[in-house]
Amino acid sequence: MEKSSKVNLAIFSAGLMTFIGILNETSMNATYQLLVKEFHQPLATVQWITTAYLLTVTIVMGTTAYLLKQVPARWLHLGATLAFICGCIICALTSSFPLMLADRIIQGIATGFSTPIMFQLIFTQVPKQKLGLMTGFAGTIISFAPALGPTYEGLVVSAAKLADDLLAPFAPGFSQLNQRSGLHPQPGKRVKGKI
Q: CA 29, CA 51: separation in Å to the nearest integer?
């Protein structure tokens, strides 16, 4: 594989991680009502899921320049991706608010690494004649993800409710797993109000 293809693939990979991280950041706002009911916590406590995530992203972004001098971007990106995946899996399976908050902080660390890594790759590996195009690509990712976040989460929550209703008679184990995640009501029950 030639160098430009590898660079484009690396930028796409970091961009995808950035997109997913920002989408994850903004999509949680649509689930507050369900999380308040599931974890029996006040809204002021539940909102820390987003606040802690954003604070972590900000702190990690500030330290990434130093870390990029110490550790190759490839390994930072791989670590960030693995941390994000592990955080997502644990968040989906947890029934404990403190554990979910800790996992959101892990996800924030991953997102905090991915955005600076994407820009570092663009500014150090892309030829000058393509710099504007790639910077625009990065800006589009950062702008587009927050616009989709709440809509995406609303669709996920709606689809999960439908899946719970349809799969509950056939897969009790899967249904219980979904109910424990805190984002899905009991089969047959409907959540009233707008989400």
A: 11
